[in-house]
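All the exercises in this workshop are built on plain-text protein records. A record pairs a protein's sequence with a compact description of its fold. Read left to right, the backbone structure tokens trace the chain's path through space. Once this layout is familiar, the rest of the handout is easier to follow. Here is such a record, shown just as it appears in the course material:
>
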Amino acid sequence: MSHLIPTPTYISFQHSRIMQLVLPLGSRRLTLGKYKPTISNTISIMSELLTKQSKLTAQLSKAYQTAGVLFEVLCAVNKTEKVEEVAPEIIAAARDVQEKTEIYTPFNILPLDSAGASQRIMQLEEIKAVVSALWDTRGLNWPTSIEQHRQKDLDLLDWLGAMFGFQRDNVRNQREHLILLLANSHIRLHPKPEPLSKLDDRAVDAKMKDIFKNYKNWCKFLGRKHSLRLPQAQQEIQQRKLLYIGLYLLIWGEAANIRFMPECLCYIFHNMAYELHGLLAGNVSIVTGENIKPSYGGDDEAFLRKVITPLYRVIEKEAKKSRNGMAPHSSWCNYDDLNEYFWSPDCFSLGWPMRDDGEFFKSTSDMTQGRKGAPRKSGKTGKSNFVETRTFWHIFRSFDRLWTFFILGLQVLLIIAWDGISLMDIFQTDVLYNLSSIFITASILRLLQSMIHSLMWLLITHSYHSSILLSRSLVKEFLLTILIILLVKVA
């Protein structure tokens, strides 16, 4: 791989070649046709140098990153061997590596460090537009731990990471993720935005709609107002939207196995977005009289340690109870079972910051059953959330649409056989009128399914609030059934 790294001698040699080719052009008046090959050769040499410089930058980035890790290992070994001091020359070298690491930062697709600004992908107008929007940090109050001179080099995701305690590598990855998402949406707009170098609000709104669709449906189901609150000032709206999108991506980036519990992520985002709004609005705490701060603080890796780790331990505990899939399904919780807890308004009793003695964190073997907290009887399952008892009745519940189709098909065949009509006469008015009764049957089946579903939910969760939420669908199906019956009679 040594031939990929342009050494200083190589670069100096190539520079002298370029100067030898370029100087004659300025010393005398020459025709373009005569020196066209010379110009083409010069351009190709410069392109070769830029390519080698790009490869050199990537390799330097990896080298400095490796050196930083090795220094951390050295410090850890010294502590293990009870060696208190590190050699001064090593400390000096580590400081130099730290400074160079900030210049040659690792990247996946976009070289966002100062050394990669000249690369072609960073010259695209849509990339420039998103980068410029993310670096607009006007009006944000930075924590005191970040020096004043460093704030100008940081963006919105750096601010979120500093305020809510996200990992630096997560911030770096999600920055690239967000830039590429917005750039792709920005360049595909029709009509094209003018100017192209400014991020269009339509691109941001499209990503807001895609990312927060499930979150808004979750809030609507639980009867809660979402936390996506926008400021009155028009010039601050785009910045606020980018902060909300960045916050969700940062949560998702560190969620680990919690990603398999999307409604749990909605609960986390709901509370953190509310805190974000309080930070930006300058709300004052009633208890302390000071400005509202994030509940879990902005310490390094605070989000991972204080939010994700407790939730992950619940999943880990339930996974051990499964005995590698050999235990009965009703004796342990999988991802869906645990996620069902966040489909109920009872999840808000968990609070924010989340209470350690909350129902979700209790051991399932110690859980009580019933609305009044009666001790669990023998023979009952010990699951704290959704209880899925697998019986042959699940064939009817899980494949309800298939059975509905069979029943409606049987009704059509009975009508045709009872009236003794042929298939050629099926489009006659009186025949179609009789066949339209299948819509009444379908509505009644849907109403019956909603009733059974609401009753099952009440028996499982022992919560009247959840039953009330599901009664909405029950009322909707009932009204739909009445409407279809009236339409059939009018016809």
